[in-house]
Amino acid sequence: MASKALRVAVHGLLPIATFVAMGGCARPLPGQAVDPLSLGHEAQRGSPIQLTFEEALREAVLHSPELAALQLRIAAAGGWPPAEPVGLEIGSDSDDRPELGLELDVLSLFGLGPQRAEKVLARLRRSEAGLTLQARVREVAAEIAEAYAVDLALAESAPEFQLLDPEAFIKAGLAPTAAAEAKTAATSALHVDATARATARAGSRLRVERHVGLRPVSALTLVLPTGPWPTVPEPDAGKLLAADPEVLRRIGAYEVARGDLLRAQADRDPGLVLKPSVALDPTHFFGAVALRLPVGAAPQIRAAHARMEAGRLEVRSAVLAALEEAQAARAAWLLAEEIVDSARTQLRAALALSDAERARVETQGEGFAEAVLAGNAVVEASGGLREARIEAAKARVRAAVAAGWPFPSLPVQPSSPRNP
Fold first, then answer.
1. Which of 170, 269, 399, 415 could covalently link to 333 via disulfide, CB atoms 3.0 to 4.6 Å apart?
2. In the prediction, which pLDDT does 400 show?
3. Helices 65-77 & 114-155, crossing angle to 10 degrees?
4. CA–CA gap between residue 35 and residue 40 (Å, rounded)
5. Which has the closest alpha carbon to 154: 387, 408, 358?
6. Is the pLDDT of residue 147 over 90?
7. Could you give the residue ranges of the DSSP H alpha helices within 12-113?
8. Taking a C-beta distance cutoff of 8 angstroms, is the pair 240, 326 a contact?
9. Each residue of 242-299: pLDDT tens digit?
10. What is the pLDDT of residue 170?
């Protein structure tokens, strides 16, 4: 049959019709926010806001724009694949009579061949998006935990310390006039230490506010845990492999690569094509049954198999890296705790020496320079202890997370379209 045919995929007309029906332009969804910074839950909660660590995690899952975007990506990744197109043929036969014909793959109607592989791949892509969300939730939880741990470490007030007043000794000729400048410098260093402590605590609050979807102007108070927190468990390989963010991402990528291989293999499956036609005279029906035999699929299959094998090796590499990180993080945390103990001992020694030197100056009227140096040593030791506490708090959280510290699971499930 010779024909001059115009072929159009029926399902390809639907987006065009939808576009025309919408007036040829994109329109916002119902209820879509115009201002991306209009976080309505702030006004509903009132002020001031007090959050424990567990409450902050729950608020982050419910109100973090970043996590909400990842949840929507799950919904966007897992829809049903488009149906096999039905070809529409309009033309004329050899007798110049108009004819109308259809073309469809029968096997695809039963979910066989490439159509089935497309559904499997869509499901695996949705699974990858879900694993990406889980990985990011754990990372956000670790950042929130670090903020609480740092704030807890700095909640302990700085040691009480009184600098020696040199004014009377300068007037009596027992101390040089430079002693007044030495006191000013020490006072300034103490002020800087207090400012650094307040700045670090404010930074912790700002980090939590960002993750829970609050603006920096909100009056958020971190309700701190009690005692040494968090508890660092022994590394558990089972929990670690199911919770490490990088391992989760690699597993998701491997699953998608496996789906790509299934689709590539399905592309070489034959297809059974029906092509019924009808001429202008409805009493004349004709058509054909064709067997579609794809050729040239072998290179795509080899490439997809290589990608899947690379994904499998990347999962193994991520697992080994996670195990190494767990051991290294625990060693770093133990070292940081020893540094804190050493810094605390140095501060106690500096305070004792400063008290002794100040008492000698006040009773004997000598040794003023030694008293000034001892006071400066207290200031330096106080700053060193503050820095050591911050690093130890961060190291403790890293060690706990690397060991598979069990954060609460996702409290809500994202809404999504039909799941293949």
1. 399
2. 92
3. 170
4. 11
5. 387
6. yes
7. 13-21, 41-45, 53-63, 65-77, 106-109
8. yes
9. 778 888 899 989 988 988 888 788 777 666 666 666 666 655 555 666 656 666 667 8
10. 74
Tokens of 64: 């973090």
How high is the pLDDT of residue 148? 95
Q: Helix, strand or coil for residue 37?
A: coil
Contact 278, 285 (CB under 8 A): yes
Please state, as a whole number, how many other Cβ atoms lie within 10 Å of the Cβ of residue 220. 19
> 176 phi and psi, to 5 degrees?
-70, 160
Neighbours of 337 (CB within 10 A): 16
What's the pLDDT tens digit per position in 195-218? 888 999 999 999 999 999 888 766
Token pair of 37, please?
Answer: 């910074």
Helix (H) or strand (E) holding 90: strand 87-92
Ordered alpha helix ranges (H), 227-297: 237-243, 245-266
How many CB atoms lie under 10 A from the CB of residue 179? 20
**Quick check: 187 and 163 in contact, CB under 8 A?**
yes
According to the per-residue pLDDT averaged within each range, which of 65-79, 154-168, 383-397, 405-419 is highest?
A: 383-397
Lowest-confidence segment of 48-52, 79-83, 207-211, 233-237 by average pLDDT: 79-83
pLDDT for 118: 79
Residue with tokens 């108070």: 221
- Percent of the chain scoring above 90 in pLDDT: 21
- Asked if residues 324 and 351 have their Cβ atoms less than 8 Å apart, the reply is no
| Structural domains in the chain plus CATH codes | 6-27+47-402 (1.20.1600.10)
**Nearest alpha carbon to residue 57 among 405, 415, 418, 419:** 405
C-alpha dist (Å) from residue 5 to 1, 92, 271, 275, 278 = 11, 7, 22, 13, 13
Q: Are 151 and 201 in contact (CB under 8 A)?
A: yes
Whether the CB-CB separation of 93 and 1 falls below 8 Å is answered with yes
Which tokens go with 242?
A: 């199911």
Encoded tokens for 21 = 């029906």
Average pLDDT, the chain: 76
Closest CA to 333 of 241, 242, 248, 228: 228
C-alpha to C-alpha distance for 39 and 55, rounded to whole angstroms: 18
∠ Cα 60 64 69 (to 5°):
130
- Give the tokens for residue 347: 């501060």
Q: What is the DSSP annotation of 104-135?
A: EEHHHHTT-THHHHHHHHHHHHHHHHHHHHHH
Name the token pair of 57. 């995690």
Contacts of 116 (CB under 8 A, 6+ apart): 266
pLDDT at 335: 97
